[in-house]
Amino acid sequence: VVAAWASVPFPALRGYSLPDTLCTYQQDVPWKLLSSCREQKVSCCFAQSVVLRGICKESHISCPGKQPASLLRACESTEEVLQRYLRTLFPGAFSTSHVLEQPCSTLPPYPQFFSPLLTRQGFLLDKPPSYSSAAVESIPVLAALQSSPVLHTLLYSLYKDLQKLNMRRWASFFSAGVEQEDFQEALQQLRTLSQCYEMGFGADGSEDEADSD
């Protein structure tokens, strides 16, 4: 089970390298949760697959001739920059990453709901332009699929919602061949699955008490 995250567009400043951009997100990730879940931040994850599009191969270069200010700036490629960033932010997690130069096209009929701070190529400006900017033609995008503790909340919430249903009101559901015992078994399997993504042991007691209520 994975949760989907994305950054549309990826918040890269025009003229800044990828290490410069990622160095501003040392305490938090530059993407937002897309899956339906109350928790919006991830402090750790078990495994993840990340794809970054629209970043050229030369964007890992930062301040040529100067001593690198961080390990990210010492990397030799954009792929290495992203991989090292993920290892630093999520130590111990299994991470795969890919960097593609081709950006995502936003030509018509793609809706133009972007900020005036975006250039035509989807990079951020330091300040609004003094002239009316042209439509955004493409954007860099970062997308991630993560197996993380967020899934515990998501799956357990689904289990609690299904548990509240009075299935006797849905006779047609069982007339299709599903047995009440099979449904209850699937419900317990869902709860067991949610516990696979739980960190620590503090929540078990509170969940059991809630179930007995």
From TrEMBL:
<dbReference type="GO" id="GO:0005739">
    <property type="term" value="C:mitochondrion"/>
</dbReference>
<dbReference type="InterPro" id="IPR049942">
    <property type="entry name" value="DML1/Misato"/>
</dbReference>
<protein>
    <recommendedName>
        <fullName>MSTO1 protein</fullName>
    </recommendedName>
</protein>
<dbReference type="GO" id="GO:0007005">
    <property type="term" value="P:mitochondrion organization"/>
</dbReference>
